[in-house]
Give the backbone structure.
Amino acid sequence: MSTRILDGEAFASQIHRETASRVVALSKRGITPRLVFIRVGEDPASRAYVSRKETRAKEVGLTSETIVLPETITLAQLLAQIDALNADPKVHGILIQSPLPSALPNEQVYARVSPAKDVDGFHPVNFGKLLLGDPTGFLPCTPAGIMEILRLGKIPTRGKHAVVVGRGQIVGRPLAVLLARKSTHADCTVTLAHSSTPNLPSITRQADILIGALGRPLFLTQEHVQPGATVIDVGVNRIPDTSSPRGYRLVGDVDFASVQPVAGAITPNPGGVGPMTIALLLSNTLRAAEDTVS
Ligand code: NAP
């Protein structure tokens, strides 16, 4: 069977081009979208993620800035910083890079970002709008990026059975809602599996579209996949690798070598979901800026 590779880099470039042309149109009206990252502490992975997002933001014409705060920052100081950005009319999007230090209550911090600037789509108001199908909210970037992979990859979705493995708040749960929406590029029958799901392979083998969002390295193998299914790998996991200078390498939740021979279509990892997450972040920021003039 020849397997289609769902090239997230190519789809992301397409979205970046659309974003860039709308940025030009908006700047003719005197507005340049501005995205501010807040990074707390010096976690190397967070530094790399923010730097990649900043590079892409610049490429599409957005302005951005990273505020780096010490690991020892108090909750009150962090909330005051967020309040200042909420009040600044030149800032259209705010992204608080996770993970935050464990001493800080994540929910309270994310909920402080104004819903109108919550371009990550994590605020309870935007989460509620997602559930209600209200298009004025911001969708969380990774699930929205996966829906774009299916749309741009021309993967049929209507009436198909999608199985999402992992019910995390950032990916699995919102993605299940998006896949089940009554809309041209969704309309799936959805199963949301998790760590208490018995006999997981018997469930995942029923999937026309299988999404791995569980954070377990190379967990999904050929035994989990119905021949011809579309397989999307969300996972980003570190596994020890003494041959790498970093001492580890990154792998997904899907064992690509095992699954690729039976899948009808599959995302590479890296180069699948990751670039789409950034593309959707930047298009959300553009929309936040457009909303200030519409
Ligand atoms: P999470 O909040 O920790 O959720 C993991 C989910 O997987 C939980 O629902 C858990 O079940 C389930 N699970 C764990 N082990 C399982 C097993 N053996 N069988 C079935 N289900 C199992 O994780 P997350 O934040 O959603 O992230 C998931 C993965 O996506 C991670 O690797 C993360 O790094 C990656 N990610 C990638 C991007 C990107 O842009 N590419 C963005 C965000 C996240 P329970 O609920 O029962 O515990």
Observations:
- The CA atoms of residues 235 and 252 lie 4 Å apart.
- The chain has ten helices and eleven strands.
